[in-house]
Amino acid sequence: MTNISKKSTINNNDNVVLLCGKNNSFNNYGLSKAEIDFIKNEINTNEKKAICLNQLHRLFIVQLIDVKPARPSGGKEKYQTAEVLRKASSTIHAWITDAKIETINIIDADGKAIETLAFAEGLALSNYQFLKYKKDREKEKFSLKSIGIVSKSLNSKQIEELSIVVEATCLSRTLVNEPVNFLTATQLAKEFQKMGKEAGFNVEVFNKEKIKALKMGGLLSVNLGSIEPPTFSIMEYKPRNAKNKQPVILVGKGVVYDTGGLSLKPTPNSMDMMKCDMAGSAAVAGTIYAIAKAKLPVYVIGLVPATDNRPGENAYVPGDVITMYNGMTVEMLNADAEGRMILADALSYAQKYNPKLVIDLATLTGAAVAAIGTSGIVAMGTADEKTKNQLKQSGNNVFERLAEMPFWDDYDDMIKSDIADMKNIGGPYAGSITAGKFLARYINYPWMHFDIAGPAFLMTKDNYRVKGGTGVGVRLLFDFLKNNA
């Protein structure tokens, strides 16, 4: 993990990224007149936003902070500028890597707290790698080890929180990147227990016998095709100074690998990346890890039903009728619509806690990707408008934006079954919404559903959102819970 810390001063031998406006004098940083003239010429004549000077004894980088989004929507927004700086940090990370720099210091010259945090966040997230299975991982490892921040507008607590959230996001990324021959449902639960010990939250794991005793029919039916047992993990963080008596519950889809079951997926660009189908569970664990480490005064519970979805053993088949945890029946018509089956049991189980709010996260539908691509999260639910707006604002703050879908009653007709209470698949249209409508049958509390199928796992690098698992959801939920603590 990249260490991020506050520094009071630096010397003229330290590697520096200067965050400043274009009118900065550049006189107080140990630069020669020729170097200052060069920087000003690059800014004023060549309209450069970032300039790199290799002074042999150090790297001196200027990053202009008065940048504008390429395509601002509705005018220049502060959160858009912050995102431009996160992306700019990815380019600068490449310069740092090429120069084999181990420590870089960010100087906030203009007192821009939000922009400085965003830049440091992007730089640290750009530094993430998953090299566990590489023989020559030491050779491939990025050089950057630590980031110092010199800023009068930021205190140590703000910088420490940033470091915690980046660490939690990277832990989430690693869980998503792990292959299923390591990360079974049982191992996923063990990883949660390890995270709980490190951060200070409780983890209880139900084994297959307990899940059977509870009659969690959705989770058990998906697991029928696997030789690996399912698990149901309960993560709880309840500090004495919690502001909420009723918990906020986070539910994460934990399908550690999805073949599609008997509704088998094609391999290219589909099944080959399905180790990521537990990204919702990784986001839940990462969020609770972050809030526990940061000691936020908020009562949060995480629920993760976990299994793989395979076509072996006694796999359930299209046409089967499944009795769920809450007693409702489901006509299973597509084994690849398994995520909603296991989430439904968890959402029903959440009712016992009388929650203030429940948010589920799941790589649930290809329809969500078709609707908005990888740029954001498809969202829907029954929470009040104030809560929805707060979540959208947090999504903007960290640039994990929410696209709210209509949740009209009309869509309920699309999951009606002739022989059961409902079927597990709608029609050819509005797939992400009908999946949400299925989940809505299992709630009796304020609820939001986040379909993260688009941004959870990327096939190519997108600036600080590296290739593979992105850890989407952790930063958004931490921001939301912190602002509402």
- Percent of residues in helices comes to 25-40%
Roughly how many Å apart are the termini? 27 Å
DSSP E strands, number: 20
> So what's the overall shape?
elongated
Total helical elements: 14
Estimated share of beta-strand residues = 15-25%
Low-confidence stretches: none
User: For the report, how would you describe the main beta sheet?
Assistant: 9 strands, mixed
The structural class is alpha/beta
CATH topology of the largest domain: Aminopeptidase
- Total discrete domains: 2
Q: Which CATH class of the largest domain applies here? A: Alpha Beta
Oligomer description: single chain
**CATH architectural grouping of the largest domain:** 3-Layer(aba) Sandwich
Keywords:
9-stranded mixed sheet, 485 residues, 14 helices, elongated, Leucine Aminopeptidase, subunit E, domain 1, Aminopeptidase
Detailed description of the structure:
This protein has 485 residues and is an alpha/beta fold. It folds into two domains: 3-152, Leucine Aminopeptidase, subunit E, domain 1; 166-483, Zn peptidases (Aminopeptidase). Helix content is 35%, strand content 19%. It has 14 helices and 20 strands. It has helices spanning 33-44, 78-98, 113-126, 137-140, 156-177, 185-199, 208-214, 217-223, 279-293, 339-350, 366-372, 385-398, 431-440, 474-483, and strands at 3-6, 16-20, 50-54, 59-64, 103-108, 146-150, 202-206, 231-237, 248-252, 254-258, 300-309, 321-323, 329-331, 357-362, 377-381, 402-404, 422-423, 447-451, 457-458, 468-469. Strands 7, 8, 9, 10, 11, 14, 15, 16 and 18 form a nine-stranded mixed beta sheet that branches. It has a six-stranded mixed beta sheet with strand order 1-6-5-2-4-3, sandwiched between helices. Strands 12-13-17 form a three-stranded mixed beta sheet. Strand 10, helix 9 and strand 11 form a beta-alpha-beta unit. The two termini are 27 Å apart.
